[in-house]
Give the backbone structure.
Amino acid sequence: MSTKTVYGIFDDEQLLLSSVKEIRANNIEIKEVYSPFPIHGLDKALGLKETRMGITAFIYGCLGLSLGALMIYYIMIVDWPQNIGGKPNWTFYHNIPSFVPVLFECTVLFSAHLMSITFLIRCGLFPGGTSDSPDERTTDDKFLMVINVDGDSSSVKEMLTKTGATEINEKEA
C-alpha cells in the first residue's frame, strides 16, 4: 500500500480552522499545519498538548533572580562595601529594599532572553536551520495543511475542496 501526502492550501485562516475541525471530526489525522502567523484556537483544534514554555519561563526567572542576588551580594557586601545613606553594608538582608529593582530586572532579563533562545532552538529557527515547509507561500500569505494518506486519497481531496481549500497537491511519500 502506497503512502501519499496531500497538501491543502487555504487563503483564509478561518477557513483553515473550520477545515481542521471538520477533518478531525471525520477521524483523519493531520500531520502539520503551516501558517504565516499564529492562529487563535488552532492548537486546540489540532489536539496539541499544552506547551511547557511557562514552566521554563519560571525556571529562567528563578535563575535570573538567584544570579542577580549572588551578583549583588558579591559586589555590594563582599567586594566593595560602601556606606550609602547610612545603610549597613555588612548584611544582605538589611539592604534588600534597595536591591529589589535590580533583582526584578535580572529576573526579567534572564527570563525574556532565555525564553527567546529556547523558542528559537525548539522551533529550529537557529542560524543555519532549514525550513520544513513544503511551500514557500506559507511564509507570506497562504495556509497549508499536510495530511498523510494510506491508499486512496480521493475522499481526503474531496473533503479539502468542500471545506474551502483553494489548491490541493499530492505527493508520493
Notes: The radius of gyration is 26 Å. The chain has two domains: 3-50+133-172, 53-122.
